[in-house]
């Protein structure tokens, strides 16, 4: 095996490369990033404005309770969005070994966040049940069936999302562990 | 900001061919390869302000691209045909009709490189892009001795996969 071989392969490797337009891709990706962040914040501001309207326009105990819950949950979601982006925007230029360790830490953090999400969902159920009781005491059972149906649909959608996310993160964590194992094997000791 | 964007465009244009080849060596599915290239372009944009010229620009860019490719593999998993390719490489004597059916030249070597085990593929891709042992070792966070061993094994497997027997 000679260096001439490597040179020959290098020439073949580089021949006729279909070159992608990377500057265009960077611009496109940046636009996506800004659009995502703008969308998150627009949705957040919209929800807070809606909560303010509920608080002022309706004024009933149930609606004020709902408005306060919307503000708290929106603040939590925006805090997570900010934290999530910060987590993904670090250490791109680390060595592969360090990068994989970091990627595994991030993956574990995301899994912890999903587990936290299940607790938040449980807390939501308690808050919503309390809102339903208040509604029943305020107005009787008139609007209750519709509210319960809407709530059940929303909770089911959130649970499905959390389940999908958890499954995805577990798979990613398994692949990362497998990659780390493969890449940290030392061929000098015959473990490659 | 505008100056930074111009610098990014220059860096990405200069290394576009190397980045395209690297992306193709980790992802054979066209749509996912596009996605990987997009992720690489974005990662380079983010990392560029922290470039301190402690390594060559090419080493810096290829290191980021290699890391992104690993994230991509962790998120998407390898393509089934790449696993098939790995099985072919593991066989020292692939069938002559299969070899003949493969496309010639550049595509042939890219296919063979894609079929290498990940540890060897990382080193081989960076070597084919012209990085020396020290640069590869720093990019991957392994020793130069380790690079030499992996490169030796990679060359042997590549030779066998290309049907170039001594």
List the helices and strands and how they pair.
The complex is a heterodimer of chains A (192) and B (166).
Chain A: H1 3-14, H2 22-58, H3 61-88, H4 96-139, H5 144-184
Helix pairs in contact in A: 2-3, 3-4, 4-5
Chain B: H1 2-14, H2 16-26, H3 30-47, H4 57-76, H5 80-90, H6 96-101, H7 105-114, H8 118-128, H9 133-140, H10 144-161
Would you kindly provide a written description of the structure presented here, covering whatever features stand out?
- The complex is a heterodimer of chains A (192) and B (166).
- With 192 residues, chain A is mainly α.
- Helices cover 84% and strands 0% of the residues of chain A.
- The model of chain A has no long low-confidence stretch (mean pLDDT 80).
- Chain B is mainly α.
- Chain B starts with a helix and ends in a 5-residue tail after the last helix.
- At the A-B interface, α1, α2, α4 and α5 of A face α1, α2, α3, α4 and α7 of B.
Which labels suit this protein?
A: 192 residues; mainly alpha; elongated; B: 166 residues; Rna Polymerase Sigma Factor, Chain: A; Arc Repressor Mutant, subunit A
Main β-sheet of chain B: number of strands, strand sense, barrel status?
none
Question: If you average the pLDDT of chain A, what whole number results?
Answer: 80
For the largest interface, the chains and their residue counts are: A-B, 47 and 68 residues
Strand content of chain B: under 5%
Helix content of chain B: over 70%
In short:
The complex is a heterodimer of chains A (192) and B (166). Chain A has helices spanning 3-14, 22-58, 61-88, 96-139, 144-184.
């Amino acid at each position: 095996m000679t260096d001439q071989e490597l040179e020959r392969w290098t020439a073949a490797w580089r021949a006729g490369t279909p070159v992608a337009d990377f500057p265009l891709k960077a611009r496109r990706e940046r636009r996506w990033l800004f659009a995502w962040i703008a969308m998150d914040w627009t949705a957040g501001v919209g929800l807070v404005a809606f909560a303010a309207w509920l608080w002022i326009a309706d004024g009933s105990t149930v609606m004020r309770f709902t408005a306060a819950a919307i503000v708290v949950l929106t603040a939590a979601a925006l805090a997570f969005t900010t934290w999530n982006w910060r987590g993904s925007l670090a250490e791109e230029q680390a060595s592969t070994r360090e990068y994989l360790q970091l990627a595994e830490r991030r993956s574990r953090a995301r899994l912890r966040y999903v587990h936290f999400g299940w607790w938040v969902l449980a807390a939501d159920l308690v808050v919503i049940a309390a809102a339903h009781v208040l509604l029943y005491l305020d107005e009787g059972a008139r609007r209750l069936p519709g509210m319960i149906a809407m709530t059940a649909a929303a909770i089911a959608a959130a649970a499905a999302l959390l389940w999908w996310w958890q499954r995805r993160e577990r798979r990613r964590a398994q692949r990362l562990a497998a990659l780390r194992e493969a890449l940290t094997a030392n061929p000098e000791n015959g473990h490659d | 900001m505008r100056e930074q964007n111009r610098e990014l465009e220059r860096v990405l244009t200069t290394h576009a061919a190397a980045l395209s080849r690297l992306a193709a060596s980790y992802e054979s599915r066209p749509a996912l390869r596009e996605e990987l290239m997009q992720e690489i372009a974005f990662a380079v944009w983010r990392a560029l302000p922290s470039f301190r010229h402690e390594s060559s620009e090419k080493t810096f860019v290829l290191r980021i691209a290699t890391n992104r490719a690993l994230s991509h593999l962790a998120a998407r998993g390898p393509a089934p045909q790449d696993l098939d390719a790995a099985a072919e490489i593991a066989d020292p004597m692939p069938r002559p009709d299969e070899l003949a059916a493969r496309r010639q030249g550049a595509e042939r070597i890219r296919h063979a490189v894609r079929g290498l085990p990940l540890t060897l593929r990382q080193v081989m891709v960076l070597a084919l892009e012209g990085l020396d042992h020290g640069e590869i070792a720093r990019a991957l966070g392994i020793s130069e001795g380790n690079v030499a061993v992996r490169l030796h094994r990679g060359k042997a497997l590549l030779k066998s996969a290309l049907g170039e027997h001594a």
